[in-house]
Amino acid sequence: MVPGVLAIVGIASLVWWTVFGLGAPVVALKIRSPGLDGAPAEGLAVSQEPPVVGRPIRSDRKPSELPGSWPWFRGPNLNSICDDEIPLARQWPEGGPPRLWSVELGQGYAAAAIANGCVYVLDYDEETLADTMRCLSLDDGREIWRNSYPVEVAWNHGMSRTVPAVVGDYVISLGPRCHVACWNAKTGESLWLKDLVLEYQATVPKWYAGQCPLIDTQSDRLILAPGGDHLLIAVNYKTGEVIWESQNLGPKPWAMSYASITPMEFEGRRGYIYCGTGGVAGVAADDGSILWHYDRWRNNVAMSPSPVVVGDGQIFLSSGYKVGSMMLQLKSDGGRLAAEPSFELNLKQFGSEQQTPVFFDGHLYGVRKRDEKLVCLDLGGNELWNSGEDKFGLAPYMIADGLILALDDHGLLTLAEATPNEYRRLAQAQVIEEGHDAWGPMAMAAGRLILRDMTRMICLDVAKK
Questions:
Q1: Quick one: which of 254, 173, 160 has its CA closest to 207?
Q2: Domain ranges in the chain?
């Protein structure tokens, strides 16, 4: 009986499809584009020469006359602390701090640098397929100028990632596919461009470049970490001329990670700390020689937070993929430097996947990936408090006027006291409506806080009235 019933059902289905199915609308199938489903993009065109930069497009808008600056990643002192002495409001009106302006951006996490009354952001223009440097007025967010160069970037959790660096009349940017460009900060003219893939055999990271360019104000040089042929290079940022190139470490050459470079002074010598794919290393600022390296600190998925220098030769390292955090101690032995761990914390204790912790008044503040809580640690790695029910995801945070400003993934902004005694929330507001992946680093100047999510940048007035 079973075969007979199945035959009848099959014949009936065939009749129904013949009568009704042939008249159903045809659905067109689309070929999947790499990266559009969140998978890593592969097969993007690799140019054999650097792209040609266009001419700037200018408007009649003017820079703001407001004081203050946040000229590069993590602010003037590279520590995510705003110390311009402008008092901040301890309480916010209903609805949160006043929003001064909002600007639509291409998808990504590239964040603002503030200088000369302007806001600079390396955006990605999805219509023209171009990395686009945009200069906006700090007053109202309107565009003063823009300039771009063509580069194909397929969507993979957004496209843009980095924060430009502004020094004098120069703006330095590092694009998703490792193009380093220098722009005139006032006019938008292109001054020079380097392709780290072509020149140094750099490997574009899986989710594109996240390293932010470092301007060392003591040596007046641009410091980059291409990996490949050379771990670090020093460049005259005005001309693009290479000053020195450090050797890479092996046996397999270290590749570019998502972390940025951190300067450090130890026993009278200045150097740069960089977490590459093979570990963490110190490189001499004067000649690019390798001062020390430690190959037990590595992450095969993604190394994003930058090293945090906490004094006395101590360096706090953190990650969020499989490894937690570590405090390294530099020691000198007969003139040679070595790094040894003084303590290690597992992911349950502390690990940060994207954002770099803040060192403030002898304590470390950061968001722990495991439970998304903001925590305060002493320099022995002991937890002093956590934020309890307040959770923040992978979003940024900073300190200003003794206060912590912390965003969550969806645009909820929290204000809390920056004290090791206890977690005390002062205010909270949804500042980005229906926010999505609000992961771009914060910037602040003149009491104005600039935030972004995947597609929008906003400016808030957080100053005390």
A1: 160
A2: 37-461
Answer for the pair 174, 212: CB distance below 8 angstroms, yes or no.
yes
Q: Please state whether beta strands 397-400 and 81-82 pair in parallel, antiparallel, or not at all (unpaired).
A: parallel
Judge: domain 37-461, CATH 2.40.160.20. Answer: no
- Cβ contacts of 377-386, under 8 Å, gap ≥ 24: 377/350, 378/420, 379/310, 379/314, 379/327, 380/343, 381/325, 381/327, 381/343, 381/345, 381/349, 381/350, 383/349, 383/350, 384/420, 385/420, 385/421, 385/422, 385/423, 386/423
Model pTM? Answer: 0.90
Q: What pLDDT is recorded for position 32?
A: 33
**Please, which pLDDT band fits residue 304 given cuts at 50, 70 and 90?**
very high
pLDDT digits (tens, 9 = 90+) for 79-112: 999 999 999 999 999 999 999 999 999 999 999 9
Read off the DSSP letter of residue 60.
Answer: S
CA distances 306 to 56, 78, 316, 352, Å, are 33, 10, 9, 10
Is pLDDT above 70 for 259?
yes
Smallest Cα–Cα separation from 378: which of 367, 368, 358, 363? 363
